[in-house]
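The pair is quoted verbatim underneath.

:::
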Amino acid sequence: MHSTSLPDAPLLREPLHAPVAHLIRGGVVEGIHYGSVVVLDAGGTVRVQLGDIEAACYPRSALKPVQAVAMVRAGLPLDGELLSLAAASHSGEERHLAGTRRILELAGVGESDLRNVPDLPFDPVVRDAWVREGRLPSRLAQNCSGKHAAMLYTCRLNGWPLEEYLDPGHPLQRAIAEAVEDLTGQRVAQVTVDGCGAPLFSVSLHGLARAAARITTAAPGTPEARVADAMREHAEMASGTGRDVAALMRAVPGLLAKDGFEGVQVAALPDGRAVAVKISDGANRARIPVAAAALARAGVDPSLLGEFQGEALLGGGRAVGCVRPVRSLEPVAVAPCA
């Protein structure tokens, strides 16, 4: 799995995170979110860094675009909505279920061949409707089912065994590991199991940003460009209706963005500028405000990012505060919290 030409894997250590966002209520800093942030310029040089961008971390679902690239390199013929779904953490909407069924149909396999964990839909509205209808958790509804269906399709096309497709030693997972190392530019530090059951590869936050930049700057028609185009053109298929990561891609022309559990966010522009964020406590409420501030530091027009300042903190039903990135991340003056 490891190429001798790559730098060593990132160190397995306790990350030296730094404050990246303040929880402000009534003008008082009520809490602090720690984490790490990296901003790369178009040439790949680190322009902004907070915390520990070189320690090993788990990108979680933010690595899915890389996994999708690996599958396309291995012959996966999907494009458009279905390729976006292959890189998705989807909401469990009917279009996501229908798309996953279509990938399974193309592969000549069924839902029973999926090895992801059964779950309810990720979107709370969709999930509540699912429960009211008396439907049980299913592998199809779980947010990684599109990726798993694409994995089965890739295996079928290559004549690889289907039953053990999640084994780290399986040819599919070895191909994915090679793509992770190629695109991040570093060896994998550790392999574990993600929430859906697939192998999860540990890299640095810096490496994750490099991988996103490699994908968005690839030549047209390459596996990387096909994945980037599919996700940007079908942002809701890679996430869901009302999801912040889809809205971010819609707001910033050419942006590729992917979120991951435990407070991970990566985003890259067509010229190679890229950002990656890890919120140390996994808090979702800090992920997008910090990522938006990092994008502004990368040169994105702040006027495009106004809706990504985070949800207001409520007191007695009215706004009394907010989650605000630390001042070193804010590129311009911002209005004070309520």
User: Anything to note?
Assistant: The mean pLDDT is 95. Residues 324 and 334 are 9 Å apart (CA to CA).
